[in-house]
Amino acid sequence: MRDVEPRKQPRQVRAELTRQRILAAAAHVFVEHGYAAGTTNRIAERARVSIGSLYQYFPNKGAILAGLLAQHLDAGVATYHANQQPERLADIVRLFVRTAIDNHRDDPRLLRMLIEQAPWSPGLVSRLEGYQRERVAEVRALLESHPEVRVADTGTAAQMIVATVEVVVHQLAAGTNPLDESRLEDEMVRMLTAYLTSTP
Amino acid sequence: MRDVEPRKQPRQVRAELTRQRILAAAAHVFVEHGYAAGTTNRIAERARVSIGSLYQYFPNKGAILAGLLAQHLDAGVATYHANQQPERLADIVRLFVRTAIDNHRDDPRLLRMLIEQAPWSPGLVSRLEGYQRERVAEVRALLESHPEVRVADTGTAAQMIVATVEVVVHQLAAGTNPLDESRLEDEMVRMLTAYLTSTP
DNA sequence: CATTATTGTGAGCAATTACTCGCCTTCTTG
DNA sequence: CAAGAAGGCGAGTAATTGCTCACAATAATG
φ and ψ at B121, to 5 degrees? Predict the structure, then answer.
């Protein structure tokens, strides 16, 4: 399962539409039936596309999953960059946290399925890692440029922060006892700012 | 896949031994081949046990996974309770963090497989949630009994702490760029204590 | 309109694999 | 030692399902 890339680059509009229909259908089917029972035939059926067409845009089942994930990640990045950097550290952190929370309110069940049921191919894992590396670098640069930050090793701190914020996903999307969102946000912000501004 | 419980209670010693052999073999095979390609036949073969015997102790493949997870969780709890409660808050937190780290140094690859590749059945998920609830309750009681703690809602705080510590797993066991362990430990402790002792 | 490129179709196959079942072996019990 | 219980065996199968391929339909091109 090395290929995660689309097999064919869409050149006509209807092609891109088909691709989108497949992804949308996949999201539905995966949530409804789970990953294993979410067969490619079922996805094609729901998308009103023949199974052959499906395999013209996705080389295998895993690639569909990767496509869904890519959509999600891209949305997150876009949302984050839509807002401009606040000045105060606490506000920056808050933006960070809130963006993460918002981005997972979209379809918690899809996220849950992604985390609990989907087997991650090596390709998917490295894609995730790349994405995470980017975020870490970004946060690190932020920490270094900000005077309030008193942490010794900004690299480790950045990794911690990015990782910690991702816990929010697991607690909100995958959690059965749903934490109150605003409270969670406040507590997260408090913890992270306390950490960043505490003297070593 | 509702059944996660063993099909037959071992009544003779050799039975328990067989069960252990199967689990050990499963750990090896799952790590080596991945979950999907880690077939039950392969596990039985490696355990030098017939496939029929395997299915006398585990009703299905998922149950083997659940067995491995249970082993891991139990080991963690045991390790933690082996040490006695320190007095200072920072030390308590450190014990907590270190226990988590130690517990995942055993077999990082197994953990990684568990997180990235294994589909979690509903039964497995609820088992995990139960375990987590226990830990949260424990931590909460701890927070409430400790004078240094200044956090407003101990319930949320406890959830945050337990969840955050579990990030360590993802970063150490599943991470490709392995963070330095002692540094991670220090940073985690700093973050959590800073959070707990900061004024709301 | 002819030609080529792109997109869409879906019956069916190849391959995998979790799991059963009838039977044998070893242990315990009285 | 008899008889029942517990443990062990492994060839075979039923069922699933991801995916191919030969072909048709539609759109762009000149």
Answer: -70, 155
